[in-house]
C-alpha cells in the first residue's frame, strides 16, 4: 500500500516536472537570429526530427519531407540562391550577390521544410500545408527545449522557382520554410507579449 502510494507520488512529481518543462518551452520560446557552431548532437537532432512527426496532421497523411543541409552543402545552397537571384535580376549589385551567397552560412544546419501534399478526398491541400507548418513549429519548440537555437526563415528564395527546382521539389510541393539550427550566439531577447485579451474574445451569438 505504502509502496504504491510512493510510486504514485513519484509518478505525479515526474509528470508535473514534465508539464512544467513543456510549458516553459511553449511560453518562453524565442527565435535565435544569430547562430554558430557547434551543430547539435545526433540525439538532440533526432528529438527535433521526431517532434515534427508529432504535429497535428488531418488524416495522418504525413504531408511533408525535410532536407538536411550542412557543411559544404550550405555553400551549394548559397550558389543556388545566387543563381536564382541573378535569374530574377541580372543587374544584381555585387554586394547583394555576396550577401545572398552567404545566407546559408548563418547556421551549421538548415532544414528545408517541404509540404508534400497527397490527393485526399477529405483533406484539402491547404490543411496539409498547415500541418507541415505545425511540424516546423514543433521543431522550434523541441530545439528550444533542448537549448538549441533555431529560426524559421523564408524570404523570396523560399518562393523562387529556380530554388525549388534546384532542391528537387515537384510541382505540387512548396517550401514551408528554412529552419536554421545551431548554437545561440548573441543575447536572447526579452519577451514582451501583449495581453491575451487583445486576441481572445468571447463570442456570444
Ligand atoms: C512562415 C514564416 C516565415 C518567416 N520568415 C522570416 C524571414 O525570412 N526572416 C525573418 O527575419 N523572420 C522570419 N520569420 C519570423 C521569425 O522566425 C520569428 O518568428 C520572428 O522574428 C519573431 O521572433 P520569435 O519567434 O522569437 O517570437 C518567419 C516566420 C514564419 C512563421
Walk me through what this model shows.
The chain has one domain: NADH Oxidase. The protein contains 6 helices and 5 strands. Strands 1, 2, 3, 4 and 5 form a 5-stranded antiparallel β-sheet that branches. It starts with a helix and ends in a 21-residue tail after the last strand. By secondary structure, the protein is an alpha+beta fold. Bound molecules: flavin mononucleotide. The site of flavin mononucleotide (FMN) has 8 residues, from strand 4. The site of flavin mononucleotide has 8 residues, from strand 4.
Keywords:
binds flavin mononucleotide; globular; NADH Oxidase; 205 residues; alpha+beta
- Small-molecule components bound: flavin mononucleotide
What is the CATH class?
Alpha Beta
And the CATH topology? Answer: NADH Oxidase
- Overall geometry comes to globular
Q: Could you give the distance between the termini?
A: 52 Å
CATH architecture: 3-Layer(aba) Sandwich
Structural class: alpha+beta
Return Rg in Å.
20 Å
Q: What does the average pLDDT come to?
A: 94
Helix content: 40-55%
Please summarize the sheet with the most strands. Answer: 5 strands, antiparallel
- Ranges where pLDDT stays below 50 over 5 or more residues in a row are none
Q: What's the domain count? A: 1
Strand content: 15-25%
Amino acid at each position: 500500500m505504502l509502496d504504491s502510494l510512493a510510486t504514485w507520488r513519484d509518478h505525479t512529481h515526474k509528470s508535473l516536472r514534465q508539464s512544467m518543462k513543456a510549458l516553459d518551452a511553449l511560453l518562453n520560446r524565442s527565435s535565435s537570429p544569430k547562430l554558430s557552431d557547434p551543430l547539435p548532437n545526433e540525439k538532440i537532432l533526432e528529438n527535433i526530427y521526431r517532434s515534427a512527426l508529432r504535429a497535428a496532421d488531418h488524416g495522418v497523411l504525413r504531408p511533408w519531407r525535410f532536407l538536411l543541409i550542412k557543411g559544404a552543402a550550405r555553400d551549394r545552397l548559397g550558389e543556388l540562391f545566387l543563381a536564382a537571384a541573378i535569374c530574377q535580376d541580372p543587374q544584381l549589385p555585387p554586394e547583394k550577390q555576396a550577401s545572398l551567397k552567404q545566407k546559408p552560412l548563418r547556421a551549421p544546419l538548415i532544414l528545408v521544410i517541404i509540404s508534400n501534399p497527397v490527393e485526399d478526398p477529405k483533406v484539402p491541400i491547404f490543411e496539409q500545408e498547415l500541418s507541415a507548418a505545425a511540424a516546423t513549429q514543433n521543431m522550434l519548440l523541441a530545439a528550444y527545449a533542448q537549448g538549441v537555437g533555431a529560426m524559421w526563415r523564408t524570404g523570396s528564395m523560399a518562393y523562387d522557382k529556380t530554388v525549388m527546382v534546384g532542391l528537387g521539389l515537384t510541382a505540387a510541393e512548396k517550401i514551408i520554410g528554412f529552419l536554421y539550427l545551431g548554437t545561440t550566439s548573441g543575447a536572447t531577447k526579452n519577451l514582451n507579449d501583449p495581453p491575451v485579451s487583445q486576441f481572445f474574445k468571447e463570442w456570444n451569438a
